[in-house]
Amino acid sequence: MRRRLAREIALKALFQMDLARQSFEKALQFAHDGHTLDDASSRFARDLVVGIWENRPQLDAIISQHAVGWTVRRMAVVDRNILRIGCHELLSGAGLSPRVAINEAVEMAKKYGTVDSAKFINGVLGTVARQAVDAKE
């Protein structure tokens, strides 16, 4: 399974849904164009998009709480969707370690975001991860 590519496809679909108000199916089809994924990776990308889009209000509330001085709507579209993916993976209980979830988000930010995106995303997700650990204790 190619999870990194699946996350990038999910990011592209979320971007289309968020900015261009594309339907779920059209956005996912657009994001898949030019990429060949095995069935498991394709399912993973689809599940990410569905889980994130359905839980967007809760994810956005968490992001807003930890992105000091920023509202989700003011963030760059790429940054907010990478944060949604990272938060979803941190909080969904999918068995992914916080370190891996944060690293994957930071790598996407380096590839698709601005010069400051990786640092911003690392800071926000690090705080979310620490709070999640504290809440479990």
Mean pLDDT: 90
Could you tell me the number of beta strands? 0
What best-fitting shape do the alpha-carbon axes yield? globular
Counting helices, strands and paired strands, the structural category is mainly alpha
Radius of gyration of CA atoms, rounded to a whole number = 14 Å
Low-confidence stretches: none
* CATH architecture identity of the largest domain: Orthogonal Bundle
Number of helices: 7
3D structure, described in words:
The chain is mainly α. The chain has two domains: 1-54, no CATH class; 56-137, NusB-like (N-utilizing Substance Protein B Homolog, Chain A), CATH 1.10.940. Helices cover 75% and strands 0% of the residues. The chain has helices spanning 3-19, 24-32, 39-54, 56-66, 77-91, 98-112, 117-136. The longest helix is centred in the C-terminal third of the chain and has 20 residues, at 117-136. The N and C termini lie far apart (33 Å). The model has no long low-confidence stretch (mean pLDDT 90).
